[in-house]
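subagent[fold] <- orchestrator: predict structure for attached chain, return tokens only, no commentary.
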Amino acid sequence: MKKHILNLALIILFVGAPITAYSQNDLDTKIMLEDLRKLSHDEAEGRKSGTKGAEAARQFIIKQMDTVNPKHFVKGYRHPFTFVSRGDTIKGENIISYIQGESDSAFIITAHYDHIGIIRGEVYNGADDNASGVAALLAMLEYFKNNKPRHTLIFAALDAEEMGLQGARAIFKDANIPLENIILNVNMDMISMNDKNELYVAGTHYYPKFKSILEKVQVPPLKLRFGHDSPDLGKDDWTMQSDHGVFHQNKIPFLYFGVEDHEHYHRATDEFENVNQAFYIKAAHAVLYSIIELDKNLN
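subagent[fold] -> orchestrator:
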């Protein structure tokens, strides 16, 4: 995921709306942090698509899903696909489960588990990019298993984002996924490293109806900000820079949660030890509470 720092003059704070206060204790953060640590361990070899490291990550994600026992579209949660990269055919797999809501109308919550692998003998573990999103997704799966939502929630750990958003593209070729029921994509990609307590949500430029709903969420001292979603921003426009872009292209509204680029982005230093744990816990809860508010307020 390629992102650039937005000019501070363009930042818009979430202000002036009724605030819902939250406890920041609804996710099992001990397990969430341990999941992040394990997904970004050297044993996963950087989780590059088509490698044994990616398979190790899949097996771990499936094991964690099994402990929650959600529903599945296919046995074992595995949704395989193939794609061509630089002349090679690569096998990828998305890992997908769901929590049935009161309605079949669905949100699909996504986070890519792949990263860029081993480069010149050095493992690029991708703790922030994007073990952070996947660990949060697993924690939210458990939360909603115990707190039934109004909408059905599909949880998709996607493969091959780093190779052209291939896992997201495969969703739209998978007859097992009830695409006609999906009304929103919530995507998490890089939510654990930020020194300014800032988490961005992109998408309200295109889908302004979500703005008043998200304004209700506050997880201090984290600052939830709008932005990075307007075409006039050029490289600072994140609309197509992670899996949510594919949903947008297919006329499904998106909200993308992520941080701005930092010194560890796509570097070998993107390690668990460099994760800002206090920020990550707040960021994961901010996404959770955003989903709760959206679930309450959307038809």
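orchestrator: received. Logging for downstream: The longest strand covers residues 88-99. The radius of gyration is 17 Å.
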